[in-house]
Amino acid sequence: MTVSAKPLPARGPATLAVSLLAMCLSTALHAQQAPPVTASEWGGSGLLQTPTARMNTAGDIAFTASHNSPYSRYNVTLQPFSWLEGTFRYINVSNIRYGPNIAGDQNYKDKSIDFKLRLWQESRWMPDVSFGVRDIGGTGFFSSEYLVASKNFGPVDASLGLATGYLGNRGDFSNPLGIIDDRFKDRRPIATSAIAQAGKFGVSNMFRGPVGIFGGLTYQTPWDALLVKVEYDGNDYKREPRNNNLTQRTPINVGLVYVPNRNVELTAAWERGDAAMFSLTLRGNPGGASPAPKPFDPPPIKPSAAAAQRAEAAQQAPALALGADRPETGASGGVEPDWATVSSQLRDNAGFRVDQISRRGGELFVDGYQVRYFSPAKGLGRAGRILSSTTGDDYDWYTLRTTRLGMPIVDMSVKRDALLGNLDGTVEDDVLRRSTDLQAPAEVDREVLYRAPHSPYGGGFSLGYRQNLGGPDGFILYQVAANYSGSFFFRPDMWLTGTVSADLLNNYDKFKYNAPSRLPRVRTDLRRYMVDNDLTLPNLQLNVTHRFGRDVYGMAYAGYLEWMYAGVGGELLYRPMDQPWAVGVNINRVQQRDFDQHWGLRDYRMTTGHATLYYAFDARERIVGSMSVGRYLAGDYGATVNIARVFDNGVTMGAYATKTDVSAADFGEGSFDKGLYFSIPFDNILPRSTRARAAINWNPLIRDGGAMLSRKYSLYNVTGERDERFFYDNLKSITD
Prior knowledge:
By secondary structure, the chain is mostly beta strands. 12% of the residues lie in helices and 43% in strands. The chain has ten helices and 31 strands. The strands form three sheets. A 13-stranded antiparallel sheet has the order 19-20-21-22-23-24-25-26-27-28-29-30-31, with no helix packed on it. Helix 3 (339-350) runs antiparallel to helix 4.
């Protein structure tokens, strides 16, 4: 392909765009499968420099690293819904420095957030149509707003879009919104990279300036693993940040994408007529993934075989000596089970650690808590099989009463006949569903059959990891630590817990940038806490809990509450059963700790606390949100909003933002606090069941405004098994 070195005339873009669409129509005569959705070098689904209207499957997470001198981009893209895509990124600019007053010869690094919404889904005659914003949460250097349409024609996927800002810097025609207001005709340039301006949402500049055309096509070659991308770039690179302008010999970019499988994309492209681009994308779909096979889990008990053994034991009972040597009898006159053995089986096979076993009429209660299985229904099903094997038909219902930190949380019940019938195929799933129940624990008289021995102490070792990405002092600041955590229970509802941490790897000594702030330094003394001592005591606190009523829970605590603060506090939570909402309030009086995280305290004191409304939107695609209103560690007042998509398998993707009464000037860099996060249960990827999960939080800046106390326990999380929707969404695991 030969490309002229002369730039296209000013009226060339519209003509070229129409020509590209015509090429797509003609190519459609060659019938092949449609090309898959792939990433642009900016991370979201797109061509090379420009986005398309396409979306990946809900639950998709992708990491894209690309290099096109002088820019290296590192992007993470989340697809919480089939109609919403979010991307956060770091850009390393190799030919710009922060400057000696900030970080010496460190390359400049820019952080930003994008989102894209699908407005219209493709049909036979209509294209996919999406609206998006690039760089809404950073410096605004690369900020852009766009509307793009994509249509599939056999092996070709064609896109055409309009953009203001960076994507449309060529300015093919004036902004039509200028008819409404002259302010839309021009876009305010961002000529400085002052760090104090970082992190703001550039709303005041949105939809302003001339409009540029962009578009192109992706062609699925006869070789399934190879795609060809041809793109018309709407940017002319004459308005790059910090006057870092680039030469563009042609607006046509071409590239090859090698897709060996669903999880890997390799792209090589020639852009601007004189620059090579390379990118690597790694993607997966944890939100839609089924749990990994569990070859290291114990096989579930088979009720029929064990029940036969029990019947044989019952037949031998009359032959036993009379009097004191005769075993106790159960509800149906059979041999009373060895409850200590049953308790051991429930722990080892059903993952349920037993505190007490009791009965009331034809219902058998097991009090305790789940320690292994992520799905409560899975633990209930395994427990039901064990209880059926050991008690036969003595009981009609089995109820597991979950008790956390000395507080009854929820009763999970299953009817014996329905469970066993579903296992052997004689009872339908909908009948089993109607034969299970989730209720608030009720205070009823029960005959206690067994109490487990009290084990007051528990603890273990773990590795801890903390990081900050993309700051002036280094792309990655990190710490790896070896932690030992332990708890001593004086009573089930009163215990002492703590953690000792030993530093293993740490480069926070590079963190020398003293971020601008007019607030008390409640978080930005981060480096001192990370490097002043290799052996620290991040947490040591005494806790007391109590259930005040059917749906009301409380906790009080005192001690070294987190690595930066000591103090006293308490929390109350009202979480009604069968309701999508809950309300909590916490209040804390804290004092800042010494930098070495030992016993000493500094002079700074604050009373901080929040009232929080939790709400789970009962939609097909589940959304869980919370809003906290109150006083933060720096004494500022405001609110934090947190919204997350929760998938059936427990994968969570979310975002949060905090705005307080502190002005942007007083807050300093960032203007206000915000971040994105996702968490993945290890149960989805490990060969053995576990309740542990990995969480990754992207908070672009560590600031003093909007800073909350990092409390060790949250009553909303402690009472998580009251989540009826999660229980029934995973009810199919009751037979696993």
